[in-house]
Structures are given as structure tokens and as C-alpha cells.
Amino acid sequence: MANWEEELLAATLNDSDHKEVFRKIEAAARELGFEHCAYSTRMPWPFSRPRNHLLNNYPAAWQARYQEAGYQHIDPVVAHCRKSEAPLLWSGEVFANVPEFWQEAQSHGLRFGWSQSCLDANGVGTGMLSLSRSTEPLLPDELAAKDGKMRWLVHISHLRLARTLAPQLHAKPGSLTSREVEVLKWTGDGKTSSEISQILVLSTDTVNFHLKNAVSKLGAANKTAAVVCAAMMGMLN
């Protein structure tokens, strides 16, 4: 008989709608004893305006307040999860520098919670899952008993939701040819067009032709931006 982890993995395997995946994540969170769950993902490209997407079943009033006040910029849970994959148990100490924010969150039923993040397969995009409830503190015995399932839920959430949300988060560039990929890789290594032409035994004009096409397909401003964009989207792997 499949265990809890295998059942969750199988249940979300063929879902292509992120809303359906999130409903199953919600159900799994309730089974673990949590009223609320929230998943957010952030792709850092372009650098000047990173793409973010948030799914949660928080009270509507708190969702509106969080967005209106721009709380994502001061939320210590978000700050922690962007730099660490270590689980974070919510506490007064965690929110010590933003007491008003913490009081508001608690007033909306987000009193006891736990969060963890993970990186995508390229080690770039960040996914974060938070589990919370309005009653009953998360004590050490419960955390120890549920630790494996909670961590698994984090990874399943990112595995499935990052995939189903990808069309909304990523630009849709045209496919790069193998030669365009090759030229971008050498450009990323700091080689000039002249040097690349010698390495690939092509004319400099041909190298520049492939670079120009790659820049255009990726919607980038120049060849440097094209290399960064392609690398972050996993196109140079």
C-alpha cells in the first residue's frame, strides 16, 4: 500500500491546473492539522522586477491588507526563506522588528505557523510554503512527529506548483538553436565574438548573427542580458 508521501505525489502527478494542485496541498495541510497554507514562488528575472506569484487560503481581509500594505517587503518569513532552506517556526522573536505586522496577522487567525523554502531544479527560482493555524501552538513533540511529512509537502508543492505556474511566470521566448546556445555559453564565459569565431571555426559575422537572433528571441536588451536570461531559464544546461 502506498504511504502518505507516495499518495500525494501520485495525486498531483497529472494535474496541469495550479488551482487543482493547490486544493490538494490544502487538503494535505488540513490532514496535518493546519487551517491555512500559502505557497509563493519568485523568479528573479528580470532583476529589476522579479516575478512573484502567491496562492493561499488566508482570510480575504488579510490577503487584501497584506497586498495593500506591501507587507511582502517587510515580512521576516519571506526574508528568511529567500536566503535559507532551513524550516522557520513562527514566534514573537521572529517578528520582533515588525510588531504591528505580527499583531495584525494574529488578529486574522495566523497565530501559529511554520515555513520552509526550496530552490527549483536550476537552483534559481524560490518556492516557499507556510502552514499555520489559529489555535494550539506547535510544540516540539508535534513538530518532531510531523517533520518528515511537512518537509515533503514543501517539496511536492514546489515541484508541482512551479511546473503548473511556469506559463504565467516565464516569458515565452522562441526556441534557441543549438548553435545559438553554444554561442551564448561562450559569451557567458567572457569570450568575444572574434574569440568565439576561432573556437567554433565560424566567421565573426556568423557568430554575431547567432547572438543577434538569441537576443531577439529572448527579448533581451543585449547579449549580456540574453546570457543571464537563458541561464536562469535553464536553457544553457
Compact overview of the structure:
This protein has 237 residues and is α+β, with helices and mostly antiparallel strands.
Structural notes for this entry:
The structure is a single chain. The chain is of the alpha+beta class. It has two domains: 4-169, Beta-Lactamase (2-Layer Sandwich), CATH 3.30.450.80; 178-232, Orthogonal Bundle (Arc Repressor Mutant, subunit A). 52% of the residues lie in helices and 14% in strands. It is built from ten helices and five strands. A five-stranded antiparallel sheet has the order 2-1-5-4-3, sandwiched between helices. Strand 1 (36-43) and strand 2 form a beta hairpin. The protein is elongated and about 70 Å long. The mean pLDDT is 88.
Reported for the largest beta sheet, the result is: 5 strands, antiparallel
Order of the strands making up the biggest sheet: 2-1-5-4-3
Q: Topology as H/E string?
A: HHEEHHEHEEHHHHH
- The CATH class designation of the largest domain is Alpha Beta
Helix content estimate = 40-55%
State which percent range the strand residues make up.
Answer: 5-15%
Task: Tell me the name of the CATH homologous superfamily of the largest domain.
Answer: Transcription factor LuxR-like, autoinducer-binding domain
**Structural class estimated from helices and strands:** alpha+beta
* Arithmetic mean pLDDT: 88
How many separate structural domains?
2
Rg estimate, integer Å: 22 Å
Give the second-level CATH assignment, the architecture of the largest domain: 2-Layer Sandwich
DSSP helical segment count:
10
The poorly predicted ranges are none
What is the straight-line distance between the termini?
A: 37 Å
Rough shape?
elongated
The assembly state of the depicted protein chains is: single chain
